[in-house]
Amino acid sequence: EAEPAPSHLPPWGGTREVPPPWGLRWAAGPRPPILWLWGQRGALVAREQRERGVAGWPRAAAASPPARLRRDMANVKVALRVRPLSKRENAEGGRIIVEVDEKVAKVRNIKIDNRLEGPWDTREKIVAFGFDFCYWSVDPEDPKYASQEVVFQDLGTSVLSGAFKGYNICLFAYGQTGSGKTYTMMGTPASIGLTPRVCEGLFSREDDYSEQPASCRIEVSFLEIYNERVRDLLTQSNQKKPYTLRVREHPETGPYVQGLSQHLVTDYKQVIGLLEEGIANRITAATHVHDASSRSHAIFTIQYTQAILENNLPSEIASKINLVDLAGSERADPSYCKDRITEGANINKSLVTLGIVISTLAQNSQMFSSCQSINSITSEGDIHVSSHPPGSVSGPRRQAYIPYRDSILTWLLKDSLGGNSKTIMIATISPASSSYNETMSTLRYASNAKNIINKPRVNEVRHQLLILFNFYICFKFIQHIYQTQSEHI
Ligand code: ADP
Ligand code: MG
To answer: Membrane-spanning regions, if any (predicted)?
Structure first.
């Protein structure tokens, strides 16, 4: 149940709070009611199809989902990064149980005791997981060592090229506390991470991506979710209640944080200033609330809008980049807090819900692909897909409900998980045997995320009013020529 749109937004579904600076001010205003109604009709049809699920598509359309939908689907890309042994792990003996071979990570099963090993023991000694990218960052001397630059060249550049084309992008880091999430996302002054590098890439855009836009506009915001409450990391005022922002849902643009400060930036230095300010605010909070940073999720959002001329007509391409540093994944595990009195309070609801959302989406996507394969046989005319009565066990099942609204994090990242976004997950692990359980749980989680299929699309707004206006001007001009010619005659 979407909450009503805030009153400061145009009533026709326009989403712009601040008018654009590049002289298209009037063109970005409210759309005429007839166009708005046309848009609403499309949205209603789309929503109905979504709610009915894939299996509920009308018989005629069941042969295969719309071609446009198939083309635009994209699996969540998953990368794995293994960090160096920490001082403590080294002191404990530093036994490494992880190995990376191209795109496969192998973990030695330490639960199998070598002394008891025998021919009757059929358990796997090595468990392997395949990913889109695997980064071995354990030893800088190793030839396959993956530095921050290597990670950026794969993941950062794909974030940038997606943003330049007008897609929404989400990159999130997942792993236990101390596994290298913040190092990968933010980095250190000596070894800069993905977020600052992506920002730098936006400002120093190179020609090899696509045509340069006429102008572009970059706005950033930085928030933190702690104990299911949202806090703006970029407000200077010393508010007494820092965690008070509300999440609402706009019928067209989806969930957003009400009152979150947006900062217009014009160069790289400004973004770095804001990033540092936000990180410092996170750390200050951590000293007040014990260990807050490893229990909070930080989302750095870049709104990247390009004004382009397409066939000499102005249009806008808007892309939203979410760079997310999640809380330590051990907080999602109820067994982690077993010995604590305040057990319930310590479990991170957002992280637990994220796990449920990811596994439900993965199940749905697998169901979708099996539907597709059955349907492709049907289209060849051999088997009838709906020979089962609806609702029967063996027939195509309904898609499971995705509980996005059960937590703030999943609600805000709704589009990034199974929606209009290209999404990359980077799972970080420690190579040490002492982290075996956490490592296995992160790897299973990440493998699950690989199955999610998103539906990214280019967010382009054509200025219909402007097109009509161009026609009007042409018409007036031709009329004027005719009139002046007839006066001469
Ligand atoms: P998290 O954010 O997951 O809790 P951090 O990013 O803070 O973990 O990493 C914990 C420690 O490990 C930090 O001191 C960090 O500098 C170090 N570290 C993590 N990943 C790497 C890496 N790939 N290379 C070098 N040091 C790393
Ligand atoms: Mg961290």
So the answer is: none
Q: How far is it, in rounded angstroms, from Cα 389 to Cα 65?
A: 20
CA atoms of 105 and 127, how far apart (whole Å): 8
DSSP state of 153: I
CATH class of 74-373+401-458: alpha beta
What would the two tokens of residue 141 be? 């001397």
Q: Which ligand 1 atom minimizes the distance to the CA of 428?
A: 3
- By DSSP bridging, strand 191-192 and strand 254-258 are unpaired
Q: What gap in Å lies between CA 414 and CA 419, rounded to an integer? A: 7
d(CA 261, CA 268): 19
In angstroms, the CA 252 to CA 16 distance is 12
Residue 443 is predicted with a pLDDT of 95
Stretch 467-488: mean pLDDT: 77
**Cα 308–Cα 170–Cα 443 angle in degrees, nearest 5:** 155
Domains of the chain, by residue range, sit at: 74-373+401-458
Confidence of residue 305 (pLDDT cuts 50, 70, 90): very high
How far are the Cα atoms of 33, 34, 319 from residue 30, in angstroms, in the given order?
9, 11, 20
- Residues tagged in the binding site annotation: 175-182
Q: Which two tokens stand for residue 174?
A: 């997942």
pLDDT per residue as tens digits for the range 209-222: 555 666 889 999 99
Length of the chain: 489
Question: Is the CB of 175 inside a 6 Å radius of any atom of ligand 1?
Answer: yes
Beta bridge partners of 222: 300
Measured distance CA(71)–CA(21) in Å, rounded: 34
Sign of the CA dihedral with 206 first, then 209, 211, and 214 last: negative
| Contact present, 322 and 194 (Cβ < 8 Å) | no
Provide the CB-side half-sphere exposure for 141 (13 A, CA). Answer: 0
Q: pTM to 2 decimals?
A: 0.74
* Contacts of residue 75, Cβ cutoff 8 Å, sequence gap at least 6: 365, 450, 451, 452, 453, 454
Q: Does the Cβ of 177 fall within 6 Å of ligand 1?
A: yes
Instruction: Encode pLDDT of 24-43 as tens digits.
Output: 444 444 555 555 555 555 55
Q: Does residue 174 have its Cβ closer than 6 Å to ligand 1?
A: no
Please list, in sequence order, all residues whose beta carbon lies within 8 angstroms of the beta carbon of residue 376, skipping any fewer than 6 positions away.
Answer: 64
Integer Cα distance of 263 and 219 in angstroms: 5
Q: How far is the CA of 136 from the centre of ligand 1 (A)?
A: 13
Opening angle at CA 284, ends 413 and 261, nearest 5: 45
Among 80, 137, 176, 183, say which to mutate for ligand 1: greatest number of ligand atoms within 8 Å of CB.
183
